[in-house]
Structure formats: structure tokens, C-alpha cells
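ok trying again, last paste got cut off:
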Amino acid sequence: MLNIRDVILSIMLSIIYLNIAIKGKEMIKKEIYEAITPENSALLIVDHQIGLYTGVRDIPILELKHNIVGLVKAAKIFRIPIIVTTTTESMWGPIIPELAEVLNGIPIIQRTTVNAWDDQRVSQAIEKTDRKKLIMTGITTDVCLTFPAITAVGKGYDVYAVIDASGAFTVKQGELGVIRMAQAGVKVVGYSNVIVEMLKDNASPLAIEAYNCLDMPFASLVHGLNQYFSKK
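nice, full thing came through this time. structure:
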């Protein structure tokens, strides 16, 4: 049987996307055809901290860790700028060790503001990348991701919120965060969408590394195909 909450949420999301679609042909064209590339994007990682992870309830913790680590590995393969920030570590603890290991030396901006964008060091670091497409992930989805995402849209950035590399304290809070971001013009995506879109071509020499970031068991098959067609 259909869950009434899921039906209502589906209807609300349909209305939101319809409202976005009717804003004009120019916006529709941009939404559909302007791809994420390693040359036009940067990654912002917000508040992936041990204390906040203990409250996440809308995605299994192991899956969340797998997805954020895979996303960061791919970002490093594609050499896109990565900005990392945490909030009030005396309260929420340090960044999770699995992520810290992958970041390996990338500086972490420790702040106290709720909205990461309100810290000038974070906003200035983003501006210095000179990239207009921002890939964002945060704990929690409805606060630490939503607030800087909608702020960035207001400042003219094209924002991609990676929902399955983010987490919320309840399913409802996560859903409401996604709705609010969609209303503001944020694109909601999955971590694998971002990686494959940046890859663009399975014949790329980076293909096997990119698919390994997704932890796909058939990544070796992709590598084999790549090797085969490269000899043609």
C-alpha cells in the first residue's frame, strides 16, 4: 500500500519542479544542458563531524561514509578544488576519521557560524576557486547543507546538493531540506551522478579510477572495455 506521506511529498516535489520549469526557456536550457566538469566546479564539504554523525537517521551511517569518501576521492582524481569546514568542534567533535584520511592534508576551516557561508574564510575560499558550479554536501541536510546552498544560489552560483552524501536527524527533516533547496533553485543529486557526469567519457584514462570511487564491482569490466577500444 502507498504511504500517504510519500504521496504528499511526491505531489509537493512535482509542484516545485513544475514552478521551476515555467520560469522561462533560458533557465530550462541551462538546467538541462550545462554539465558539471572538472574545469567549472568546486566541492564544499560541511560539518561531517563525529558528533553530528551520531544523530543521522535518514541514511545508514556506513552508506553515508561510503558515499562521501567516494565523492572526495573522485574530486581529487579530477583535481577540482575542495573546501572543507567544520563547526564548533568543541561541541560536535572533529571530522570523521574515514574522511580525514582521504582529505590527507587539505586544510579544514573551523568556524562557529551555523551557515558556513557566513564565515568569511569559507566564502572567500569559494570565491578564490573562480568556479561557478558548487557541489555541496553537509551534515545535516536541512541546516548545514541547505543554508549555504540557498545562500550560494542567491549569489549567482549553480549549486548541486549531494543528498546521499549528506544526512539528517530525521527523515522528515531531510525531506523538508530537499524541498526548500529545490524551491530556491538548488539541483539535488546523488554522489554517483556527480562523478559520472564529470567523467563524461568511459574512454577517458580516468574512467577506471572514477568507477573505483563508486566501488562498483564491475569497474574492472569498464577498464577492460576501455583497453579494448583504445586499441581500435
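cool. The mean pLDDT is 88. The first strand starts at residue 41 and ends at 46.
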